[in-house]
Structure to design on (156 residues):
């Protein structure tokens, strides 16, 4: 199956889960200290996560360890900062995604998600294959630099 079809499927899965919150295995929770997340489902080829974001909460710049995927904003507004270009001269593209908006990404996607709004936000994320690692980065004058590589079962 072409990579484009897989990404389309990831967004369709995220939208499907977002359209049926009554079927979520846990209700969303909001943690004032850090983002809250819970895995809703796992299959042989993908996994689905529910995340909540209070104003000001965000991820670090990160990739998905070679997994492609998508996310869908169930409620609120999230801002995605995507890193494009070569590692020695990256540029950041910013986009806001509100209620009902979704975003697909490929296997080499580096981004940060932030709730820059005043209201809480909820999002559904799908990764395929399931996440095994996530590399965290920072932007410096030298470009994009690796900080850590987190592993499933150890850091999350």
């Amino acid at each position: 199956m072409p990579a484009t079809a897989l990404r389309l499927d990831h967004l369709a899965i995220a939208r499907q889960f977002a359209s049926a919150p009554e079927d979520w295995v846990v209700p969303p929770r909001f943690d004032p200290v850090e983002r809250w997340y819970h895995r809703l489902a796992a299959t042989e080829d993908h996994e689905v996560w529910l995340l909540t974001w209070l104003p000001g909460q965000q991820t670090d710049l990160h990739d998905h360890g070679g997994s492609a995927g998508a996310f869908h904003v169930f409620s609120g507004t999230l801002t995605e900062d995507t890193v494009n270009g070569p590692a020695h001269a990256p540029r950041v593209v910013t986009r806001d995604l509100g209620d009902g908006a979704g975003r697909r990404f490929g296997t080499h996607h580096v981004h940060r998600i932030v709730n820059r709004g005043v209201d809480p936000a909820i999002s559904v994320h799908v990764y395929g294959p399931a996440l095994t690692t996530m590399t965290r980065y920072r932007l410096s004058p030298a470009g994009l630099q690796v900080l850590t590589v987190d592993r499933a079962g150890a850091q999350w």
In short: The first helix runs from residue 3 to 18. The radius of gyration is 15 Å. The chain has a mean pLDDT of 93.
